[in-house]
Amino acid sequence: MNDARSEGRAAAILARLDRLPATRHVWMLITLLSLGGMFEFYDLFMTAYVVPSLVRAGLLKDVQVGIFAGPALFVAATFAGLFIGTFVFGYVADRYGRRTIFTYSMLWYCAATLIMAFQNTGLEISLWRLIAGIGIGVELVTIDTYLSELVPKSLRGRAFAFNQTVQFAVVPVVAFIAYMLVDTKPFGLDGWRWVVLIGSVGALFVWFIRRAVPESPRWLINHGRLDEAEAVTAEIERRVTEDLGGAPLPAPAPHSVEKADPMGRFGEIFEPPYRARTIMLMVFQFFQTFGFYGFAAWVPTLIAQQTGINLGSSLQYSFIIAIANPFGPLLAMSFADKIERKWQLVGAAVGIGVFGVIFSYQSRMELLILFGVLITLSNNVLSYSFHNYQTELFPTRVRARAVGFTYSFSRISTVFASYIIQNILAVAGTKGVFGLIAFAMAMVVISIGKFGPRTRELELEQIST
User: Fold this and answer.
1) Is there a contact between 167 and 34 (Cβ–Cβ < 8 Å)?
2) What φ, ψ does residue 64 adopt, rounded to 5°?
């Protein structure tokens, strides 16, 4: 956009997008993106449920890379891949488009997961787990960016809450599948391999989703492709008008427009006004994973440690807790666009810290399940709200790059969190683990509560300028 006419045309397109009502077609687009992310969540969360089986099969015995050995190596490989995907390749959605990268990153991790299912050594399994993690990391960044740019400003909170509801709905599914299969060998194939194989079927849905979901008009505008942005917006408007039975759409309001720059500069995220936001998210992302994955990835082990029960029973109780996963963001849909995003993050972090400490003092199974469910609900409100929040803070030209960079701090912290938690669990038990989690949540509260800007009901272009 090199002139006032182009800027005016871009502003008009953005205004038309932001005035759209939440009709069936808009929710269909949100649902399709969420279904793509559902397979990625399956792949991500199966870590907690296949590790005990890999240990029991002896596949992680005597395998070590640096300080990481056994189960910690497998978990570390997962999050090292996620780190590479977000830090090294987070920019690709800014360069090649949200729709293209959404498609190919999904194919990447499905293929790598399929190959991993047929490996026979701990080192090979961990290697392919790392490769799959790269695709998952790129997909995470792309879906968040894609979703924030497609939905109108009045719907962003609910859209992300629904997105996470769909994605987290797969967590009890993978927990149940693991519970049913890990002790069996259908057709002579180890149960854990079936759990992994099922996660690779997302590739079958890629092309259907790609045909149904358009490119982000904001990305097209930023690359000077105004005619394509106009065509995409017009088609969305046509479908929304059909949903309304032919009733006219609301009149567009005046709208801000960003500086057009197809790629932007990485250094821009360290310049005002983005520098403070970048540092805030770096701190937040580093510490939030101690609470989120510190519980989610270790829950079967934590329950077994707390009660002394066997693997099968631990997985059964973990499945009961996992059922709660979709309900956190589902409940959040009732307040997602009513409460400022930063305070939702703060409240969720407080819940994780408090319920985690209480969990560590329980020995009765019903109380472990109760507080495990409360931790899970808090974790999922935290997850939905930060996935939304981080995409709102940067302009289109560097949105995926900035989100990928800051998000990568959560991936690298989880690599070391796995090692730290494993050692704290051995020395100080679950009380020590949840003491660490409570400290991490205090850092989340300080970083977001003190330095986080407001974003609710604001245009993306208003927030980012």
Assistant:
1) yes
2) -150, 140
269 located within any domain: yes
Q: Which helix (H) or strand (E) holds 67?
A: none
3-state secondary structure of 70: coil
Question: How far lies 199's CA from each of 20, 106, 180, 232, 324, in Å?
Answer: 35, 11, 15, 32, 20
Share of the chain above pLDDT 70, in %: 95
Q: Does the structure show a pLDDT above 90 at 360?
A: no
Task: Please give the Cα distance from 285 to 414 (Å, whole number).
Answer: 10
**Which amino acid belongs to residue 198?**
I
Angle, vertex CA 163, rays to CA 277 and CA 392, nearest 5: 20
Beta pairing, strands 64-65 & 68-69: antiparallel
Asked whether 237 and 217 are in contact (CB, 8 A), the reply is: no
State how far the alpha carbon of 230 is from the alpha carbons of 17, 47, 211, 221, in Å: 10, 43, 18, 9
Distance CA 442, CA 74 (A): 28
List pLDDT tens digits, range 204-227.
Answer: 777 778 788 999 999 999 999 999
Phi, psi of 118, deg, nearest 5: -110, 15
| Two tokens, residue 107 | 């194919």
Q: DSSP string of 151-205?
A: S-GGGHHHHHHHHHHHHHTHHHHHHHHHHHHTT--GGGS-HHHHHHHHHGGGGGG
The CB density around residue 231, as the number of other CB atoms within 10 Å, is: 14
Inside any domain, residue 116: yes
Residue 452, classed as helix, strand or coil, is coil
Domain count, the chain: 1
CB–CB of 47/78 below 8 Å? yes
Nearest CA among 208, 143, 226 for reference residue 404: 143
Residue 401 backbone dihedrals phi, psi, to 5 degrees: -65, -45
pTM: 0.88
Phi/psi at 428 (5° precision) = -120, 0
Q: Which of 144, 138, 147 is nearest to 216 (CA)?
A: 147
Q: CA distances (Å), 160 to each of 112, 333, 345, in order? A: 27, 9, 14
The per-residue pLDDT for range 272-286, each reduced to its tens digit, is 989 999 999 999 999
Residues of the domain holding 109:
4-250+262-463
CATH of the domain at 231: 1.20.1250.20
